[in-house]
Structure formats: structure tokens, C-alpha cells
UniProtKB/TrEMBL annotation:
Residues 90-220 form the GST C-terminal domain. It holds the Pfam family GST_N_2. It comes from Seohaeicola zhoushanensis. Residues 1-87 form the GST N-terminal domain. PANTHER family: DISULFIDE-BOND OXIDOREDUCTASE YFCG (PTHR44051:SF19), GLUTATHIONE S-TRANSFERASE-RELATED (PTHR44051). InterPro entries: Glutathione-S-Trfase_C-like (IPR010987), Glutathione-S-Trfase_C_sf (IPR036282), Glutathione_S-Trfase (IPR040079), Glutathione_S-Trfase_N (IPR004045), GST_C (IPR004046), Thioredoxin-like_sf (IPR036249). The lineage of its organism: Bacteria, Pseudomonadati, Pseudomonadota, Alphaproteobacteria, Rhodobacterales. This is Thiol:disulfide oxidoreductase.
Length: 240
């Protein structure tokens, strides 16, 4: 049994997809970030960074005590190694998978995340930041388009690299982007979206409470801002 500590956003969807694809037994533990559920001492013992998602493997391969894993790329790699699936066995394919996974962690996720922050959450008047991060978010889509013009999947075969990248395309309209001029990327997205495990993962975590995180322009109370971006979030990381 694996506990998936999650919130109903795309970054958490990637882990649910992997769990559904592998058939590993899991239990959902839902949080409400605007309320600050992730800022407790109990959750910090699972993830010192106080971010979601995180997992707790209650049956680790070494037979020891339950084992916590945080950071989505590390979780995907852990689950791939645990299950022996969705990471290529040949050295070149494995390296390609790791490269694209690292690219998502270092580029696609952070740049799209910053675009969402400045467009949807930050106070008005962030013109340079909006232009900077929307432009970079769009550029990274073209990087994927270039790769997928010559391959069905990022590592050649369907892998955790695809699972990591796929959810970030779900909120493009919220930051003013589309796949209209990116036919290979659009076809890749549709191939993955049609997978039964992906549909099951979406049903499992994206329906309940999703509306809280899918507003084009979020108007947060001071308490919600503090839990998401402000003093309360920072205090949780300073407290021993």
C-alpha cells in the first residue's frame, strides 16, 4: 500500500497516473493548500519542503519501516524502480527518459508554474514577469514539438518522462496558450489522454475540489495567500 498525499492539481496528477499505470495499490490522502493543510509538523515529517505531492510506501522493497519520498521526479523514479516499469531498460532509452524527466523538473514545470503564478495569482501590474514566463512557457512547448516530430514519446517509448510532462498541458488556456500550432505535441497529448490509466487517475484526483485550483484569476484572502505564498508558508520551513 502506498499513501499518495496530494492536492487536485496537475503536478500531483503525474503520480496518480504512474500508480494507475503500474497497478500498485494506493490510498489517497487529500489536502487543501489554500487552508494550509500541508504546513503541519505531521506532513513536514513526510516532506521537509512542505510541498505536494509526496508518497509513503508502506511496503518498501527492503522490508523495513514505511518510506517517504518527496519531489515528483524522485517519486516517479522510485515507483518505476519499484515496479520495474515505465523506464526503458536499454542504456540509451533510459538516459533519454532521465534527460526529459530532468528537463520537466528544471524547465517545463518551473516556467509554467511561474507563468501561472504571475498571470493568475500575483497582483496586477506584473507586466515584465507575465511576458517573461508566458514566453518561456511557450518556448518549451516548441521544444517538445521538435522532439515529438521524430518520436511518438519523449524517450521513444511511453515512460515516466511523458507522465511528468503531460499534466502541464492541461492548464494552457489559463495562461493564454494553445496547442493549435503544435500538431505533434497535440497528437502526443491526445494519445496519453486516451489511456485508461490516465483517465482513471484524472477521475481519482482531479474531480473533487478541482474548481478551487482551476480559476483563471484567483482572488485569495490574506489567510490563503499566507498559506500558499506568504508568511505562514515561510514560517513552516523555518520551524524546527
Amino acid at each position: 500500500m502506498i499513501d499518495l498525499h496530494y492536492v487536485a492539481t496537475g503536478n500531483n496528477l503525474k503520480i496518480a497516473i504512474m500508480l494507475e499505470e503500474t497497478g500498485l495499490e494506493y490510498r489517497l490522502v487529500r489536502y487543501e493548500m489554500f487552508r494550509g493543510d500541508h504546513l503541519t509538523p505531521e506532513f513536514r515529517r513526510i516532506n521537509p519542503n512542505c510541498k505536494l505531492p509526496a508518497i509513503v510506501d508502506r511496503a518498501p522493497a527492503d522490508g523495513g519501516d514505511p518510506f517517504a519520498v518527496f519531489e515528483s521526479g524522485a517519486i516517479l523514479t522510485y515507483l518505476a524502480e519499484k515496479s520495474g516499469r515505465f523506464i526503458p531498460e536499454d542504456p540509451r532509452g533510459r538516459s533519454l527518459c532521465q534527460q526529459w524527466l530532468a528537463w520537466q523538473i528544471a524547465g517545463l514545470g518551473p516556467m509554467h508554474g511561474q507563468a501561472h503564478h504571475f498571470i493568475r495569482y500575483a497582483p496586477e501590474g506584473q507586466h515584465y514577469a507575465v511576458a517573461r514566463y508566458r514566453s518561456e512557457a511557450e518556448r518549451l512547448l516548441h521544444v517538445m514539438e521538435y522532439r515529438l516530430a521524430g518520436a511518438d514519446y519523449l524517450a521513444g517509448e511511453y515512460s515516466i518522462a511523458d507522465m511528468a510532462c503531460f499534466p502541464w498541458l492541461g492548464g494552457l488556456s489559463l495562461i493564454g496558450l494553445t496547442l493549435d500550432a503544435l500538431p505533434h505535441l497535440a497528437a502526443w497529448h491526445d494519445r496519453i489522454a486516451a489511456r485508461p490509466a490516465v483517465q482513471a487517475a484524472r477521475q481519482a484526483i482531479m474531480d473533487e475540489n478541482r474548481a478551487l485550483y482551476a480559476r483563471a484569476k484567483a482572488e485569495l484572502t490574506p489567510e490563503q495567500w499566507s498559506a500558499m505564498f506568504g508568511d505562514r508558508m515561510h514560517r513552516a520551513s523555518r520551524t524546527l
